[in-house]
Amino acid sequence: MWQSIRVLFLRITAICLLGVILQAEPVGAAGDKLVISRFKNADGDKVVSYVLERIYNKIGYEITFADYPGKKSLVKANAGEADGESMRRAGLASVYPNLIQLSHPHVDINFRIYTKHGDDFFSGFESWKNSRIGIVRGVIALEEITKGLNPVLHNTVRELFDELNQGNIDVAIATDLIGGLEVFMNHPDENIRTWGGILKTIPLYHYVHKRNASLVPALNKEIERLRKNGELQKLYVEGFDVLRAAEKKSE
Length: 251
Known about the structure:
Blueprint: H1 2-23, E1 34-39, H2 43-58, E2 63-68, H3 72-78, E3 84-88, E4 99-101, E5 107-115, H4 125-129, E6 133-136, H5 140-145, E7 151-154, H6 157-165, E8 171-175, H7 178-186, E9 193-209, H8 216-229, H9 231-250
Helix pairs in contact: 2-9
């Protein structure tokens, strides 16, 4: 009798341990690629995507990207049609409750003014009030910066800088990463320059859909490590070099 009870106990223990193992699937055990939604991509977004892809690789996962205009990227991720959203400002989980914001930003962006005008164009408030200020549609920070002014909305960064180059807008507001890369890659000899200092610096965070909550601790730990040891900045330089090499190859 005691032998039968002992065998039954061992069987129950084995089943419980198997259940624990199945539930606590180790990071990196996923089979398919995770799909990350992102703002309709420009060259700068590709560099950020390269860095995020490396971060996921370091915890054992592969990702791919789905591009959407404006806030649709957040909507799609919140609806579970993507596994996460590439990069957004802090605090959006209160608006999109199915998304979990990571603890550490993986990119810090600086918004700047780009123009072909000389310094005399920016003589005072009236010049700003009457200027055609180009921004990309759906970027909340840009909507806040240009509130009360005369913003002209564009669907992509490429379109924004094409319009600036053609003189259809007076200034464009974009980040030093994304805007700077757009000028460097597509308008290198067209006298587009930055004017003034940084308008605003915003840290951007990766958001993960709640079904992937088990990945959050590993992602947080990895981004914190990369920020502390300086490796994150090196990844951005590496991403820029990869993008530049790809552009040269396609020429």
